Hints:
Blueprint: E1 2-8, E2 11-18, H1 28-38, H2 40-47, E3 57-62, E4 71-76, E5 81-82, H3 86-98, E6 105-111, E7 114-122, E8 125-129, E9 134-144, E10 148-156, E11 160-164, H4 176-192, E12 205-210, E13 217-224, H5 236-248, E14 258-261, E15 267-274, E16 280-295
Parallel strand pairs: 2-3, 4-6, 11-12, 13-14
Antiparallel strand pairs: 1-2, 1-16, 3-4, 4-5, 6-7, 7-8, 8-16, 9-10, 10-11, 12-13, 14-15, 15-16
The structure holds pyrrole-2-carboxylate.
Pfam families: Pro_racemase (PF05544)
InterPro entries: Pro_racemase_fam
Family: Belongs to the proline racemase family.
Amino acid sequence: MHVIDSHTGGEPTRVILDGGPDLGTGPLAERAARLATEYRDFYRSVILEPRGQPAMVCALLVPPVDPTCVTGVIYFDAEAVLGMCGHGTIGLAVTLAHLGRIGIGQHRIETPVGVVTVDLLDPNTVRVTNVESRRTRSGVSVEVAGVGTVTGDLAYGGNGFFIVDPSPIPVTASNIRQLSEVTIAVREALQAAGITCAPGMPVDHVIFYGPAETPEGHSRNFVLCPDDAYDRSPCGTGSSARLACLAAAGRLAEGTEIVQESIIGSTYRLSWRKGPNGGIIPSITGSAYVMAESRLIFQVDDPFRLGIVL
Ligand code: PYC
C-alpha cells in the first residue's frame, strides 16, 4: 500500500494512493458506508499504532462519480468513517501538488457529503470551500457528571458538532488532558440523552472555545474527534460548523475573515458566504507539509498486523 503522510497545522493526514479495498463504483456515501461496515480491520490497521498514530486521519483515494473532480476521497480516523475532513482536504491538495497531479489554481474533490473546492494558492497553502453548513439547534444543555450543566450549539460542517463557547475549562495546551476527559464526558452525555445534530446525524465531535492567545486570533479551540484524539489543527469541518453558529447568532458578518487558533497554536483563516439552502458556505485557508512517502507492509505472521486493539 502506497501512502503519503503530511500534516496540516500539526494534524497528520495519511493519503492512501493505492492498495485499499475495492469499494465499487456507486455514490461515495454508499462506498463510505461499505468501508465503515465491511472493512473496519483494514482501516484500523492503517491508522492504529504501531503503523499509525492516534491523531492521524486517513484519506482513501477512490474514483469520483463526478468527472469534473480530480479525485474522490473517503476520510476516516481510528474509530469512524468521516463525512468530510478539512485538514485532510488541505493535506490531500498539497499531496496531489507534491505528486504533480494538480497545479496552482482551483480543483474539485468529491467526498461522501458532496463536492468541495480547493484553491491551491502556493505549494503549501490551500483554501477549501466546504459543503453548505448550518447551525441545527442553539442553547442545548446537557448534564455532565462531575462537570455540571454544559450548554452549546449543535451544528453541521460536514460532520456533526457540539460547540461550547465559552469553555467550562481554560482552553490552553496545559489543560489538554482535562479538556479531553471533559469533552469525552460531554459527548457521552449527549449520546445518553439521545441528543443528535439532526435526525440520523450523531454528534461525533465536541469543540470548546476560549480566548485567543495572539492579537490576530478570534478565539482558540479544543476539538475532540470520534476516536478520542484531539485535533492539532483548528479542524476544518469544526470551523465550518463554528462559522455557521457565528453567522446564525449575528456575531460574524458575511465575508469578514477571522483567524482561528488551534489548541497547539496553529491557525486557519475563515470566512463564510450565504448558501443556497439557508446555510452558509465556509471558506477555510491553511497550510500543509508533506513529511513521508512510504509502502505499508502487512506481514501475515505479524501479531499486530491489524494494529494494537486493546
Ligand atoms: O479538519 O475537519 C477536520 C477534521 C476532522 C477530524 C479531524 N480533522
